[in-house]
Amino acid sequence: MALRATRTPRARRLALPAAAVAIGLVTVGCAPSSSEEDSGSSGEAGTVISADVLDELRAVVEEAAAVPEFEPQGPAFSVAPLAGQKILSMPVSSQLKGCDDMARQVVDIAKSIGMPDSTYFQNDGGPAAWVQGMNQAINGGYDGVALVCGIDPASLAPQMAAAEAAGIEVVDMHLADVSEPASDLIAAQTNGEFNRAMEVSVAAALVEANGNPIDALMITSNENPPSIGMEQTVKDEFARLCGDECGVETINIPITEYATKLSGAVSSALVANPDIEAVFMAFDAQTPFVVSALKASRTDAKTYAFGADEPAIEMMTDPSNPMGGDMGPSFPWMAYSGADQLFRVMAGEPAIPAAEAFAPYRMFTPENADEATPPDYGFGDSYVQGYRDLWLDAPPA
Amino acid sequence: MSTTDVAERRGAEGAPGESGTPPTTKTRGSWAEKAALPLAWVVLFAVFAALNPDRFLSMGNISNILGSQSILFMLALAALLPSMVGDIDLSLGSIGGLSAILVAVLNVQQGVPIGLACLLAIGAGALCGAANALFVVRFRTEPFIMTLGTGTFFGGLIFWIANSTTIVGVSGTLSEWTYVRVIAGIPIQFYYCLLVMLLIWYVSTYTPLGVRALFVGQSRDVAALSGIKSDRIRWGAFVLAGVIAALGGILYVGTTGSAGPSSVGAFLLPAYAAIFLGATSIQPGRFNALGTGVAVLFLATGVAGLQLLGAQDYAQQLFYGGALVAAVTLSRYLRRT
C-alpha cells in the first residue's frame, strides 16, 4: 500500500474518528441492555431469608452433595430378544471427552448383553456429521441408535423419519430438562435435571451469603437450549427467595467465543456491578475463564456451575479458586440409564416417561470435591448392579 | 525524530513499490490520517466515560481494557511480522494453542518445572515457524494455502497431545507472573505485550533491518534485485512470529490456569482484524506495530464500554466488524484525492 501525503478537507479528516464513535453509539443504541429488566440492587444490608428457610436451603444443598443412590425408574424386563441385534452409538461430538466416553460405554454395555456387532460412530459434531451417522445406521441394518449428549432430533427430522421407516429405535440421551415435553421424533429419550442443578446452586449461593441479599451474574450460551431454562430458573429462584432484594444479570456468550470474550465480559460485569457475589454458569467449561476474571477483579464472588466435569471439579480442589459449587451428572451413570431406555424400546417394552428417565446429579463443593476421583468420580457404583439386575436373561459376563 | 530517522523513513517511503510518488511532505492531512485511529480511540474513551463515568473510569475497568486482551495483543503482534514482509501466517492460532497445551501437559502431566515448560513451548513455536518458512520460502509456495495446511496439522497435534481434553492445574507461578501480578493496577502481561510491540516498532522503524524488511514487504522482486536477502528476512519473520505466538499461548495458560484443544485458535481472526485496522494509522498503508497496539486497545475499549452498558454479544460483534470495515474504507477514501 503506497503512502500518499495529501491535504484533505477537514470533513474527511474527521471522518474516521466520527465513524468510530458513530459505530459505538449505534451498537449501543441497537442493543438492548441485558441487565435492564433483570437487575436489582442488593444495596441494603441485612438478612432477607428467615432462619427456617435458610436451614431448608442448607438441607437442600447437603442432600444434593451426598453420593446418589440408585433407584430403578422402571420394572425389570428380559433382554433376551436383543440377542444378535446391534446398535450404533453417536456422541454429539467426539471432541467432548465425557460425551465421547459415554457413547463408547453405551456400545460396551450393549455388547455385554448380547449385541456384539454394536458400533460407535466418531464425529466432529454438527448436523452434517450426524446425518452421516444416521445414514450409516439406516444403510447398515442397525436395530437401534443412541444419540449421546443431546443431539437435537429436530435437526435430523428426515433421518428420524427414515430410521422409523427402517424399524430402527432411536433414543436420545441427556436431551433436555425433565420439565420439557418429550420429542415425538424419536422412540424415547433420557433427560437431565438441568433446572434442578440451578435451584440447588442458588440455594448454595444464598447459604454462602448467610441469607443476606446478593446480586448474581448468570452466564448462558443460548445456542444450547437447556441454558435458557437454567437462566430462567436462577431468576425465578432469586425472585422466590428474596424478591426484589437480589438482582440477577445475564450475559450470553456463545460456546465458540469462551476463549476470546468470556473473561473480559465477566470483568466488565463485575466493574458495572461490584455487588455481584455469585456467578452462575450454564456450563462448567466456562470455569477457567470466569475464575481468572474473578481472581483478577479481586472480588469475593464465587462460581456455581452446571456440569460436574472432571477438569472443573479438579479446579475446585484448589482453594485459591473462588468456586462455590458445581452440580452435574456422571457420564457412566448416564450411559447406563440411556442404555436401559434403549434396551426397553428395542425389547418392545414401554419406555420410561421422559420426565422420569434421568441419571441423578451430584453437587460438588470445595468440601467434597476431593471425592471426585477414579474409578467412580464421586458417584459410587450402585447403579451398575442396579441396572444389570433390571436386564433379565442377559448372557453371563 | 532524528535526522537519520527521517532519512531512513524517506528512503522507505520512496521504496520501489511506491515509484511515482512525489517526496513526502508532512501536511495536516497526512497527520490527520496517521492520528485518526488514536484520536478515534480517545473520542471513544471519552464518550463511554461520559455515558458511565463511575464505572468506565474505574481502575477495574481500565485494568480490564488493558489487561484482558493481552492474548489477542500478543497474537496480533505475531501476525504482524509475516504481514510486514508481504506474507501471511494462518497457523499462528494453532501455534499458540500448541504452545499452551505443551506447557500444560509438560507441567501438569510430566512434572516439568513451569519455567522450563515455557521455554520448551517457545522452542516449539520457533520450530513451527521454521517449518512454515521451510515450506513457504524454501519451496516457494503460497503462504495462505501452506499455513492453512500447517495450521490444521498443528491443530491435529494439539488434539493428539491433549487427548482432546482440557488440562487444568497448571502451576500458579505462571498465573502469578502473567495475570495476577499487577503494575499500577494493570496485569503484568500487558507490559509484556507493550515491550514486544516497542521492540518491533524500534527495529522496523530505526534499524536497517527494518528498512530492508519494509522493502521486502513492498516489492520482493525489486528488493532482491537491490541485493536484499529477502528469503532470510522472510525466514526470520516466520520464526519470530512462531515465537511470539508461543508467548501468546503461554499468556493464555497463565490467564486461565488451563489449556484446552481449541483455546488460542479463536484469537486468530481478531488478531488479523487488529493488524489491518492498525495499518490505517500511525504509518497509514503499512502494517505497523504502534498502529496494531492502538487498534487492539481501540477494540478492547469499544468492547469493554459496550459490555459495561449491558450490550449483548452481537452488539460487540457489530462494533468489531463495523470498526474494521469503516476504518479500512475511510482510510482508503481519505487518501483518494
Features:
heterodimer; A: 397 residues; alpha/beta; Rossmann fold; 6-stranded mixed β-sheet; 5-stranded parallel β-sheet; 13 helices; B: 337 residues; mainly alpha; ABC transporter involved in vitamin B12 uptake, BtuC; two-stranded antiparallel ribbon; 16 helices; disordered N terminus
Architecture overview:
The complex is a heterodimer of chains A (397) and B (337). By secondary structure, chain A is an alpha/beta fold. Chain A folds into two domains: 37-65 and 195-328, Rossmann fold; 77-192 and 330-366 and 375-392, Response regulator (Rossmann fold, 3-Layer(aba) Sandwich). Chain A is built from 13 helices and 13 strands. In chain A, the strands form three sheets. Chain A has a six-stranded mixed beta sheet with strand order 8-7-9-10-11-12, with helices on both faces. In chain A, strands 3-2-4-5-6 form a five-stranded parallel beta sheet, sandwiched between helices. Chain A has a two-stranded parallel sheet with strand order 1-13. Chain A is globular and about 60 Å long. The model of chain A is unreliable at 1-8 and 27-45 (pLDDT under 50). With 337 residues, chain B is mostly helical. Chain B has one domain (31-334): Orthogonal Bundle (ABC transporter involved in vitamin B12 uptake, BtuC), CATH 1.10.3470. Chain B contains 16 helices and four strands. Chain B has helices at 3-13, 28-51, 53-56, 59-67, 70-84, 92-109, 114-138, 143-162, 172-180, 188-206, 208-218, 220-225, 230-256, 268-278, 289-308, 313-334; strands at residues 167-168, 182-183, 186-187, 258-259. In chain B, strands 1-4 form a two-stranded antiparallel ribbon. In chain B, helix 4 crosses helix 15 (289-308). Chain B starts with a helix and ends with a helix. Classes of the chains: A alpha/beta (397), B mainly alpha (337). Chains A and B meet through helix 2, strand 8, helix 9, helix 10 and helix 11 of A and helix 2, helix 4, strand 1, helix 9 and helix 13 of B.
